[in-house]
Amino acid sequence: MFDEFGPLGLFLSAFLAATILPFSSELALIGAIELGMNSQDALLYASLGNCLAVLVNYFLGYFLYTLMHEKIEKSKVGQKAYELSHKYGYFALLLSPLPIIGDPITIVSGLIRLNVLWFIVITFTLRIGRYYLILFML
Fold first, then answer.
1. Cβ atoms within 10 A of the Cβ of 93, count?
2. How much is the average pLDDT of 48-76?
3. How far apart are CA 44 and CA 133, in angstroms?
4. How far apart are CA 98 and CA 72, in angstroms?
5. SS in 3 state form for the chain?
6. Among 53, 51, 77, 66, which Cα is nearest to 113's?
7. Which of 47, 60, 73, 118 is the most buried (most CB within 10 A)?
8. Which conformational region is residue 100 in: left (phi greater than 0), alpha (psi within -120 to 50 degrees), or beta?
9. Is residue 6 a contact partner of residue 36, using CB atoms and an 8 Å limit?
10. Model-level pTM greater than 0.85?
11. pLDDT-derived band of residue 2, with 50, 70 and 90 as boundaries?
12. Predicted confidence (pLDDT) at residue 104 exceeds the cutoff of 80
């Protein structure tokens, strides 16, 4: 995708990788570098796409809460899960860059209404740091 569309392709690959779709933004980043994209540009476009997508995930979860809050409040299990999620939610965000479990964590973060500013600080830092580490290892 990035071969044909350049920076926009890398942005879209990174965006889609942060959804529940099975994409690998890391491979897209490495591929873009291998095809000659400047590493700073690749870091920028991959980070923008991935960070925007986790923010979309957060707000998807945030709006899902409006549909589910009555069920959560009426259920003892739902109330307990909500309380535990708030207690450990920020620690769970440390796992958000991981494949498979990371993207659902970002959706649940919105669902349990974690503070959006802390969500941004934690998830964006980890996601950009992951890309920076990959570029450092190349």
1. 23
2. 88
3. 14
4. 27
5. CHHHHCHHHHHHHHHHHCCCCCCCHHHHHHHHHHCCCCHHHHHHHHHHHHHHHHHHHHHHHHHHHHHHHHHHHHCHHHHHHHHHHHHHHHHHHHHCCCCCCHHHHHHHHHHCCCCHHHHHHHHHHHHHHHHHHHHHHC
6. 66
7. 47
8. left
9. no
10. yes
11. low
12. yes
Amino acid at 21: L
Task: Report whether pLDDT(1) > 70.
Answer: no
Domain ranges of the chain: 2-137
Query: 6's torsion region: left (phi>0), alpha (psi -120 to 50) or beta?
Result: left
Q: Are 65 and 111 in contact (CB under 8 A)?
A: yes
Predicted pLDDT of residue 20: 76
Distance between CA atoms of residues 93 and 108, nearest Å: 10
Residue 25: pLDDT over 80: yes
